[in-house]
Amino acid sequence: MKLELLPTDMSKLADSLPSHLDNDMILIVGVCDSIFDGRIKSTLDKGDRTLILKKDGSILLHNATGTRPVQWQKARAGKINFTYNIENSTLIMESYRPKTDESFFITFYEVWFAAFLQIKERLSKGSQTFGDEKDFVDQLVLHPELIESNLKIIEREKEIAFGFIDLYCQDSNGTFTVIEVKKQAATLTDAYQLHRYIEFFQKKGEAVRGILVANHIPKKVIAYLKTHNLEHVSIPWQEIFPTLKRPTNTVRTKQLDDFLS
Fold first, then answer.
1. What's the pTM value of the predicted model, to 2 decimals?
2. Contact call for residues 7 and 114 (beta carbons, < 8 A)
3. For 40-83, how does the pLDDT look when each residue is reduced to its tens digit (9 = 90+)?
4. CATH dotted code for 2-118
5. Which of 38, 88, 118, 199 is least surrounded by Cβ atoms within 10 Å, i.e. has the fewest?
């Protein structure tokens, strides 16, 4: 791995960045605001943030806290450009995704740190990571019978106007079936999202079923699903992933403070 600092002077930084976009990971820390304009509209007021650009074109904008980016763009979505606005002394990143007519603008007013890293992918045949929502969907693709007998997976991550359908299937009667998958307990938001997907097809005159799959489905969510003729299947994900042996003999017990916190 190689790490090299880039100039924090935004005019010089705008000139330096293009040569690193396709080959390196770029880190920029400073004060910025942003606009994401596409199928969803999202704006962020001026704040202290970290921008990570990966060599595959992934864009991740992070706040000072939290594990997830507050705004992002998928890999290879579109060309990334940096320009320096001499009128107000700002550095502007712009990305445009033609497929969905999405634009992503990030404007830096101050840059405190900038660097690029040359990182090689090191894949190990012995490494294994599983247990997130993607892996849950992977297991369902391999074993659709966990949801329903004779269910046929037609497409994964099917894109429609309202987002991406986790699993687009066909049941034993030939009826197309939309499946929304959640690893944890389902929420009313998840049920509403599934309802929107079904409405999309119904407005086109297509008959489809909707199934919400989750680790646990609360009564209020079940009630919403029944009201809108939607179905549900509860699949405890812990039962379909193997248990790992922890390399420690430490006794793991919860204290009262753990529950109170």
1. 0.54
2. yes
3. 788 999 999 999 999 999 999 999 998 899 998 888 888 899 99
4. 2.70.180.20
5. 88
